[in-house]
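Justification of resources, computational component.

The compute hours requested in this renewal are based largely on the per-chain cost of generating structure records like the one below. Each record pairs the submitted sequence with a full structure-token output. That output is archived, and it is also reused by downstream analysis tasks.
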Amino acid sequence: MRTIEHWVAGKPTTGVSDRTAPVYNPATGEQQADVLLADARDVEAAIAAAKDAFADWSQTSVSKRTKVLFAFREIVNARASELAELITDEHGKVLSDALGEVQRGLEVVEFACGIASLLKGDYSDQVSTDVDTYSFREPLGVVAGITPFNFPAMVPMWMFPVAIACGNTFVLKPSERDPSASMLIAQMWQEAGLPDGVFNVVHGDKLAVDTILDSPDVAAVSFVGSTPIAKYIHERGTANGKRVQALGGAKNHAIILPDADVEFAADHLAAAAFGSAGERCMAISAAVTVGDVADRLVEAVNQRARAVKVGSGRDRDSEMGPVVTRDAQQRIVGLIDTGEEQGARIAVDGRGHTVAGHEDGFFVGPTVIDEVSTAMDVYTQEIFGPVLAVVRTETVDEAIALINANPYGNGTAIFTNSGEAARRFQRGVHVGMIGINVPVPVPMAYYSFGGWKDSLFGDKHVHGPEGVSFYTRAKVVTARWPRSEHASDASFHFPTSK
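The structure output for this chain reads:
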């Protein structure tokens, strides 16, 4: 059985812990590797390597840093298919989706390649007689990323390109469910010329996470995962004096108005709900119909759900693969069961879905649950599977109020041909990312990604301008170079301009 090791100070290492966790192929249900689970000493070794590397990397010129970033971008782009195959084999998503994930990660690398302009400070001449003031930003030190299974390449690439470009060193704790992508990325960084110790990978569980959160040598932590864990990460990290950006769960709604193009909306709702088997923090999991559009929309979405080609992610004809683990499969099926028990109507049933030749795979078919109320478990819980719940409302204002009453505020969308309704929606919803006829409104890398309410703990979003701000801190310098013939104007009163 293959063993997936850590990456510390520029090389793979087994560390000192002999604990492991299984890594499965979700399409076959077979274990394909063991991944090492770090203990505190393993994590501390990675942090120490990053701390040692910070002394030189933080003083490396912006020009040299960007050369490494440009080289890394070219390597990832050239080997994108290899990276996508690793993702598919361990996560289960189809290859085209995995390639799309790599591309969205590359966009952040490309954004970080422009770090020279993003780190420029301000300068004010002659703020007082012979006195100038200017500012600049410096890296924090060792920073860490704790990332989820659903995007094993993209989410880490939302973090480390910006952090490293700003002059920090990085320790990544990826999900133990699909760890191989991080190891290939570490090799790509080395090939690009990144000095040893600037990027490190430690695999692990809560023990590794707590060691990162408690370490006095880690200045900041970025996290993406469930809301309970995000809250825990934020509370423990900030209690230890760290900067923390912790992105939590989601319940993303899409409102469909009677004037919307129903066929267009159904196409995009099906893709947003069932793409990547619904294992996206921006997946649409609740379709909120307004007025008499409900029956037409449900029928159109049902047709598309039944037509989705479910199979192995390696199969080029597949549109949707399995979910990541057997436990995830059982949890999703259990929530569908509960929805039915609580009075919802199962319009398209994905329970018991099998794929020929992959009967032991972790498959759940596309599922549409109609007549859902906001009190049902399929609405209140983040399902994180290929399940679309339909909630019926009478007015736009009722639909907006329903969204605002939900504790999550990650992403939302509206399907309409009315500019007035769209503007009322975008100004009225308490959600961080909004799509107008765009169901998965993930912003481009030069904007920042982040939600509101229980979808984000901390005040900074990921990547983009807020990412640069998160991974740096400002210095403001007030300077004077007095001429020797000038008399001193020192005074005991508070200094003022003159």
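The mean pLDDT is 96. The longest helix spans residues 40-57.
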